Amino acid sequence: MSPLVRPAAGPQAATFLDLPAGSPGGSVELFLDLYTGDKPLIPARAFMLAPTRPKPRLPAGLDLLTVAGKCLEGAAFSRYVAALRRALVTAIDPAQIGVLHLQHLTFGATPALLRALPAHPRIALVHGTDLIFAEAHRDQLHILRETARAADAIVVPTGAMADRLLKLAPQIDRRKVVRIPWGVPDHLLTDPPSRPARTSTSHLRLLYAGRLTAEKGAEHPITGLAPLPGVELSIAAPRAQFHALAPLLQRTGVQARYLGWLRRPQLWKAFAEHDVLVMPSTTLEAMGPVVLEAQACGLPVLYQPVPGLNEVVAASGVATDFTHSAALARDLNRLRTAPGLLPALRQAGYANAARYPLTTTAQALADLGRQLT
């Protein structure tokens, strides 16, 4: 691979995720990758919420806002947005900002940032949770449509996300919708963790990594694994969410090994110590960055072909139906026994992940910002 080139800086962005610092999720990791660190890929004033628990170690360039009342609906949501706007007005000098990067089409940070800096160009980045919450909450659907109208450009990582967005907000000017895939940290592509040699092939070591919320579908591989010999499951997830799975694990008799909620370098090491990543999402994935990071580390992927994943992974992984126990058993047995299949999938995964370097994502966003300012 050619030497990495840092993207040319665009105008300084103002950007905000109204999640407590240290929260899990792919959108959080992308946010930190792009806007924070000693030499951020995109120069920005980047904000998250101050956590109520002890403050985690913060990356350089991340500022915290102490605002309570995070919610989704009703008069309380309006008060929450107003409080966020007041905090942003105090924290930001508008003269230092060239463009707004709205990290969601929904939630409180987006309308607060729009109202705090009403005269700046706006780039909205769409994540899967935007569409899921807009479908479930009327006020969030209103915010999504309002933001889509106000944005000068709407960035989606996949065509599937664009299609889903246009169903929720059919009045969007389609010329504003731009496809920019999310990226994998370049150093992971050039210097992935080494994979220890397998000393035994008697068991297939599966890994689930991510939140355990309903749309992630983690209960399906657990119930599907219950009758299967020769398969081991590890779970890397937030602790409270894993504990909530205890009744299901007990009922099915599945002995899942809990790895904790891992920092990314730890997760990358865990990728190298397993045979297959399982991705049983039930609804859609904006892009599934954990899949691409697993592939960059040489970990083959078994996935539910929901919108987004079927576009990003395609033939570089194995599609299955986690809700159909016979199909899951067949595909797991094939992964465990077919000669040469796992090495071939590792090579296909490496090649797929290499298509999505993070610097390319940052460069495309910087170019878009320059066009709008």
From TrEMBL:
PANTHER family: SULFOQUINOVOSYL TRANSFERASE SQD2, TRANSFERASE
GO molecular function: glycosyltransferase activity
Pfam families: Glyco_transf_4, Glycos_transf_1
EC number: 2.4.-.-
Organism of provenance: Streptomyces andamanensis
SUPFAM superfamilies named among the record's database cross-references: UDP-Glycosyltransferase/glycogen phosphorylase
Gene3D superfamilies, per the entry: Glycogen Phosphorylase B (3.40.50.2000)
Alphabetic keyword roster: Glycosyltransferase, Transferase
Positions of the Glycosyl transferase family domain: 205-348
Segments forming domain Glycosyltransferase subfamily 4-like N-terminal: 62-185
Keyword Flavoprotein tagged: no
InterPro entries: Glyco_trans_1, Glyco_trans_4-like_N, Glycosyltransferase_grp1
Name under which the protein is recorded: Glycosyltransferase family 4 protein
Keyword Endoplasmic reticulum in annotation: no
